[in-house]
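Second attempt. The first submission of RNase H type-1 domain-containing protein had a stray character pasted in from the spreadsheet, which I only caught after the job came back as garbage. Lesson logged: always re-copy from the clean sequence file. Corrected sequence (99 aa) follows.
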Amino acid sequence: MQQQQGNNQWEAQAVLLDVRDILKRTPNLGFTWTPREGNALAHNIASMQQAGGLNRNWCSDPPLIIKEIAEAEQRQSQARQRQHQRSMEEEPPNLTHSS
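This time the job returned cleanly.
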């Protein structure tokens, strides 16, 4: 068990070094952390693919669960955008500055 943990740590470190190298070569590339609840679609797609549950044409004809998750995440994203817009309207940025 401990040997497996050690291997996972080395594998993770190798991936992180690869990512760092890619970032150095492509300065216009960036990453954004996404909380677990905002990543359900990607998680389910990966899980279904690993289990052999996705057809080759899954993008044009996704399984029902994928459609439902995508629609739910879209609604959540739109709600966050509306909330952000309302907060920006309520508190306009302070454009004055003292010299």
